[in-house]
Amino acid sequence: MKIAFIGAGRLATNLAPALKEAGCEVVEVWSKTQASAEALAARIGCKARWGRVEQATREADLYLVSVKDSVLADVIRELHTGREQALFAHTAGSMPLSLFAEAGHTRGAVFYPMQTFSKERMVAFSRVHIFLEATFRDDLNVLSSLASRIVVSANVHKVSSAERCRLHLAAVFACNFANHCFALSDEVLREADIPFDAMLPLIEETVQKLHELPPVEAQTGPAIRRDENVIGMQRAMLLQRPDLLAVYDILTRSIQELKYEK
Question: Which residues of the chain are under the pLDDT cut of 70?
């Protein structure tokens, strides 16, 4: 199977090499910008194209479309012409399978690796979970086989668009919002000239506990203890930063309310 990547961002930069190393034939990388296309293509040893997406190869069997959600529908529509029989699969967490039918493309699918990706740090795919969806069962089986080449088969899941949207929402809380809290922690520390490295053992232990306990049981800290003295002192420290104080108050209430619900 000949695979073309449409997009050369963070996800594609991790996924394309993983597929290549698993023995898949990646024939081309397309990106809107020349630098991005050439950088990823050079890494995996394939052709690079850039500019308008209509200029991408028409020789691939599978097009993995990994672009911004805001332009995904337009890219699918523009890519369709001349590739009507090919399998298209987008990699977005919250975009529906129906985008393909709306663009007039029959063989639509989703290949969603649920992970945080960066160009600077390559992900080990062996522990990633991949969530699949397709219009046709045969295409779903093709993608399942492909996913099983880079992750263990138990980590390949078939889900609906609605289920995948809920997964993505959960990932935003678990990853994006959590990382933002790390950034806020770093900001608080910098005011005292303390390096963020001091937080790393704490963060690592927090994550390790989640292998043994559900999050609601692993929760510690002044909010869950309802330690009003400490909460009051910490709120006072944030009076000059109403933005941080608002986050602190919302999370404190959320911790207390969630614990009671459980």
Answer: 259-262
Domain of residue 54 covers: 2-159
Q: Would you say how long the chain is, in residues?
A: 262
Task: Mark whether 148 and 188 lie in a shared domain.
Answer: no
* Residue 26 sits in the same domain as residue 61: yes
Phi, psi of 38, rounded to the nearest 5 degrees: -70, -35
Give the full edge-to-edge strand order of the sheet including 47-50: 47-50, 25-31, 2-6, 62-65, 87-90, 108-114, 129-134, 156-158
Q: Where are the alpha helices (DSSP H) in the chain?
A: 10-21, 34-44, 69-80, 98-102, 137-147, 161-171, 178-190, 200-209, 215-218, 222-225, 228-237, 242-261
pLDDT of residue 262: 46
Q: Clarify whether residues 23 and 148 are in a common domain.
A: yes
Q: Contact 53/6 with Cβ under 8 angstroms?
A: yes
> What contacts 34, CB < 8 A, 6 or more positions away?
48, 50
Whether residues 40 and 131 share a domain: the answer is: yes
Tokens describing residue 15: 């996924």
pLDDT at 260: 56
Domain end residue (candidates: 159, 179, 214): 159
Q: Six-digit token pair at 237?
A: 């420290």
Domain count, the chain: 2
